[in-house]
């Protein structure tokens, strides 16, 4: 297997070395193919519109220390193969700097498990992109370190959602539902993982969520065609084990039913769950939503900051001061205020993690930049040579060089005339 992966890597490097992938025209051909993928149509349109501009060298100013000169930042585009598992739309969305699929994009898809992934990680790549859990993220990062390979890691974590009493409760409940259960039944990396509200307001929030859930999924959500199944039996059992935990089972206030044959779990809310319960320690990645209560809503920031940094954080409030404090004090990969998950839809916003939730970012031009090396280029002619740059060095030369490096024109003039 390792030999086969090595051949894949060699073939991709050969394609890149031929120069085919460096042209704007080649990338436009790729984009025409990818426009067939509906989930990334809007992103592809943006790329088609902006690609020429993104690929142009960026002119930058120079200082007196290199005068006369010009400078620019050029892009070196990577030819690496992204590490799986990746949802297809992520694979296609992040391909612009790569050498991908034969004929159109020179990607080689390697399916498999731990042995195949290990063989891939033994190879030397320009860059590695991985999305998944933190445990595997650490393995990816450790393997990349052997070759000093840079990485983009989009991981996950426990994404917090704070609900203030000063809010539109109905809209808040509906947006929580669509961000949690409407997003693949919570099986997304930015799904709200737990809610924080005040003890005085929590019951009202539970009632609002219950009411809106029934409107969306009916009295028996397990029969609803709009309620997705859990991805496999292993994760189904993991989630039901969380519900059967003694610290959780008696705290269920909405849902709790499941259908093992169809791998379905009803939207479930757990109120006042203990912080030391398993459901509050690991990323849920499913249709279970614990609610943690605090005395004052401002205490929610302390609760969040006591945990590892998440991929996303959410706040619902009409309180301007609370909003500003939340944005300033909570560290997360991204945020939505009075909304859930929708910040991902904006291509002008980078998407990525921080700390335990990952490193690097992508989306829109950020994807292009993530897979490009910015190469610094200084250009000079043969005029403007300064004797003070060369030995033998004298006190006068040193003063002149210091003046040049300062960039102060008056100091330079004084050095020239020997003041």
Please write out the topology.
Layout: H1 2-17, H2 24-34, H3 41-55, E1 58-60, E2 70-77, H4 88-93, H5 114-121, E3 128-131, H6 134-146, E4 151-154, E5 160-163, H7 169-180, E6 194-198, H8 202-217, H9 233-244, H10 246-249, E7 252-254, E8 258-259, E9 264-265, E10 268-271, E11 288-294, H11 299-305, E12 310-316, H12 320-329, E13 332-337, E14 351-352, E15 358-359, E16 361-362, H13 365-370, E17 372-379, H14 395-406, H15 409-416
Parallel strand pairs: 3-4, 5-6, 5-12, 6-11, 10-11, 12-13
Antiparallel strand pairs: 1-2, 2-17, 4-15, 7-10, 8-9, 14-16
What portion of residues is helical? 25-40%
Number of helices: 15
* Major beta-sheet overview: 7 strands, mixed
* Mean pLDDT, all residues: 84
How far is the first residue's CA from the last residue's CA? 72 Å
Description:
This protein has 419 residues and is α/β, with parallel strands linked by helices. The protein is 37% helix and 17% strand. It has helices spanning 2-17, 24-34, 41-55, 88-93, 114-121, 134-146, 169-180, 202-217, 233-244, 246-249, 299-305, 320-329, 365-370, 395-406, 409-416, and strands at residues 58-60, 70-77, 128-131, 151-154, 160-163, 194-198, 252-254, 258-259, 264-265, 268-271, 288-294, 310-316, 332-337, 351-352, 358-359, 361-362, 372-379. A seven-stranded mixed β-sheet has the order 7-10-11-6-5-12-13, with helices on both faces. A three-stranded antiparallel β-sheet has the order 1-2-17. The protein is elongated, with a radius of gyration of 27 Å. The termini are far apart.
């Amino acid at each position: 297997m390792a030999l086969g992966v090595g051949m894949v890597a060699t073939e991709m490097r050969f394609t890149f070395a031929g120069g085919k992938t460096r042209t704007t025209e080649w990338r436009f051909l790729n984009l025409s193919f990818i426009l067939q993928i509906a989930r990334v149509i809007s992103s592809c349109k943006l790329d088609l519109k902006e690609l020429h501009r993104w690929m142009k060298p960026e002119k930058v100013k120079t200082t007196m220390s290199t005068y006369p000169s010009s400078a620019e930042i050029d892009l070196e585009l990577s030819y690496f193969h992204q590490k799986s598992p990746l949802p297809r739309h992520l694979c296609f969305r992040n391909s612009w700097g790569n050498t991908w699929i034969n004929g159109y994009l020179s990607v080689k898809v390697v399916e498999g498990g731990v042995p195949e992934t290990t063989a891939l990680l033994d190879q030397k790549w320009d860059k590695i992109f991985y999305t998944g859990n933190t445990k595997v993220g650490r393995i990816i990062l450790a393997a990349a370190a052997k070759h000093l390979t840079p990485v983009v890691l989009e991981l996950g974590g426990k994404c917090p959602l704070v609900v203030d009493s000063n809010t539109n409760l109905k809209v808040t409940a509906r947006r929580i539902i669509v961000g949690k259960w409407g997003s693949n039944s919570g099986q997304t990396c930015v799904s709200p993982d737990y809610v924080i509200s005040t003890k005085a307001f929590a019951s009202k929030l539970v009632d609002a969520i219950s009411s809106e859930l029934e409107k969306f999924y009916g009295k028996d959500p397990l029969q609803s065609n709009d309620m997705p199944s859990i991805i496999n039996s292993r994760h189904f059992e993991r989630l039901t084990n969380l519900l059967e935990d003694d610290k959780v089972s008696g705290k269920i206030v909405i849902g709790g039913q499941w259908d093992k044959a169809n791998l379905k779990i009803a939207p479930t809310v757990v109120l006042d769950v203990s912080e030391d319960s398993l459901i509050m320690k690991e990323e849920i990645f499913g249709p279970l939503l614990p609610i943690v209560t605090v005395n004052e809503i401002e205490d929610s920031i302390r609760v969040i900051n006591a945990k590892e940094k998440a991929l996303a954080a959410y706040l619902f409030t009409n309180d301007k001061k609370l909003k500003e404090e939340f944005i300033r004090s909570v560290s997360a990969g991204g945020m939505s205020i009075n909304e859930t998950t929708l910040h991902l839809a904006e291509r002008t916003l980078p998407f990525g993690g921080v700390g335990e939730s990952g490193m690097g970012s992508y989306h829109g031009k950020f994807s292009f930049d993530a897979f490009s090396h910015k190469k610094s280029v200084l250009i000079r002619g043969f005029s403007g040579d300064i004797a003070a740059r060369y030995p033998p060095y004298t006190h006068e030369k040193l003063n002149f060089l210091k003046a040049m490096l300062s960039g102060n024109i008056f100091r330079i003039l004084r050095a020239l005339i020997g003041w």
